[in-house]
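One record is set out below.
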Amino acid sequence: MRASLIQIAVSEDESVDSRRERLAALVREQAGAADLVVLPELWTTGAFSYERFGTEAETLEGPTCEAMAKAASDAGVWLHAGSVPERDPEGPLYNTSVVFSPSGELAAAYRKIHRFGFDEGEAVLMAAGRELVTVRLPETTLGLATCYDLRFPELFRGLVDAGAETLVIPAGWPERRRAHWTLLAQARAVENQAFVLACGTAGTHAGVPQAGHSIVVDPWGEVLAEAGPGEEVLRVSFDPAKVAATRDQFPALKDRVLGLGTPRR
């Protein structure tokens, strides 16, 4: 299976419309070169541009999803279009990841469960999702997570229990914690015996330098490909059958012990 992770910079100097057009063109350029294309988190606004969440929020029938659906169809690829600030018709905002099929149909939407910011930013401006989401592709089953979710292993265990074999994580991860980004991507791959495709942003937005370094990790924790700090299309081929082979060869997931209860004091 061939994947392209499109690591772009989010700049206040570029309009959302221009960036949308630029990214759609980059998706179309993957025609014939990729089966799956992955974009970063909140690339329309920037993950730290809190004041833009409300002004740029749109429904899943809005201009971003419309443009990405068309790009997926034109390229004939599965497209994980990163995430957008979604405005629910009933009012709340969500950080929502979307996946489109090669025919341009909306295959899945995942509302980010773990919102970053503690008592500010995304944590107070956006509502939390409540559902784990997987997407069945012909070659593999994707498990969806977003950025800060990467720090919470129980979410990924739930995705594996739901059949996930390839974990896809768009992000707007800051440069100052880049070591955590790499470490956690490898940890999630090893502990779940799954592929991890983690796509971040480059450049600086809202004064926050971004880590870049999008990464693809195999079920043994080996880094198959890693981007640099700048804009880049990271291309990689991987064999989804390696997940089942790894789990058969080293069946650690069968030794999980659940329901341990409350620790003694």
Notes: The first helix runs from residue 16 to 28. The radius of gyration is 18 Å.
